[in-house]
Amino acid sequence: MKLEEAIQTALEYETRIRDLYDQAVAEASDPAGKRIFEALGKDEQNHVDYLKDRLDKWLETNELSVERLESTLPPKEKIQRELDKLKAEMNKDDRKVERQMLSKALTVEVETSAFYKRMVAEMDGGAREMFARFLEIEDEHIAIVQAELDYNTRTGYWFDIKEFDME
């Protein structure tokens, strides 16, 4: 895949997941859940802006300048505190909409991550470096979404670690 096409495709993935998080904010009833969706959406918007800038510079100069992409998400500890608040409130009402949105988000995050893995394998130089950073961030998004989904569905897992055992 050529670089221009790869960036365009990445933009499509990032826009899709950003829009999903925006929809989740609008539909979620839980304030803590809304804040997490907002934070993830903001990070995805940051990705869209970054990719648009890289694409514009590529089209203008035919050179890829890779600048460090930083995540706009708060530290994992803060996210964990928000999830802990959500867990404390879980029994108070049904979170069906949040679970549906989290399931959709997880699917799209996994698809996006798979695309970036493919780009890391196919590209070289600065393009590989740029897509590798996106892969790192998207893998973090997967972990966050999975953790919140685990809390919401009460599976007994937290970041793929079993919290309790019935035996």
What would your notes on this structure say?
With 167 residues, this protein is mostly helical. The chain has a single domain, classed as Up-down Bundle (Ferritin), CATH 1.20.1260.10. 75% of the residues lie in helices and 2% in strands. The protein is built from 5 helices and 2 strands; from the N terminus they run αααααββ. It has a two-stranded antiparallel ribbon with strand order 1-2. Helix 1 packs antiparallel against helix 2, helix 2 (31-61) packs antiparallel against helix 3 (76-89) and helix 4 runs antiparallel to helix 5 (125-153). The radius of gyration is 17 Å and the shape is elongated.
Counting H and I runs of at least 4 residues, what is the number of helices? Answer: 5
N-to-C series of helices and strands: HHHHHEE
The largest pleated sheet is described as: 2 strands, antiparallel
Architecture in CATH?
Up-down Bundle
- Helix vs. strand class: mainly alpha
- The largest sheet has its strands arranged as 1-2
N-to-C span: 51 Å
Percent of residues in helices comes to over 70%
Query: How confident is the prediction overall: mean pLDDT?
Result: 83
The number of distinct β-strands equals: 2
